[in-house]
Design brief:
Length: 156
């Protein structure tokens, strides 16, 4: 069975730097000291019976701690990841500046083998980055999503 996730990619047009995108740094001890290839578009898994856009809105809210802005979300595409997961992405232009980031958490035994279970945020921070910078921060499998966004914006 293919694992599916849904995501919202917010973008804005910044004077001088072109397009900026809103992405989150993955939480937990594995990612704590990493920056390059340690960021992700807010996303999460959904069931076949669930509407992908509704799932993307729900997952964004859970990972960022506040609902996404009201916007005209357009289906950007379905993107297969190296893990074989497929991410269904919706994009919208929006200016978004939440007061704080308060992500949901996941339990993890850390250090591994210690028997000690701790809760970690799925996203420990999120920021706007110029598209060129976001390319170096996003996990490699999500970089084609930026390509698709730029292609869509050229066509509009």
């Amino acid at each position: 069975m293919t694992v599916r996730s849904a995501a919202l990619l917010l973008y804005r047009r910044d004077e001088g730097s072109g397009i900026a995108v809103w992405i989150g740094h993955m939480g937990g001890p594995f990612w704590a000291r990493k920056d390059a290839r340690a960021w992700s578009i807010p996303k999460g898994e959904f069931l076949d019976s669930e509407e992908p856009l509704a799932a993307a809105v729900r997952e964004f809210t859970e990972e960022i701690g506040t609902p996404p802005p009201a916007a005209d979300y357009a289906h950007l595409g379905d993107f297969r990841q190296p893990s074989r997961k497929i991410i269904t992405v919706y994009a919208a232009e929006a200016d978004f500046e939440p007061d704080r980031i308060e992500s949901n958490t996941f339990p993890l035994e850390w250090p591994k083998g210690s028997g000690r279970i701790q809760d970690y945020p799925e996203i420990d921070r999120a920021e706007w980055f110029p598209e060129e910078v976001a390319r170096t921060k996003l996990v490699a499998g999500q970089v084609p999503i930026l390509d698709a966004l730029l292609e869509r914006l050229k066509a509009v």
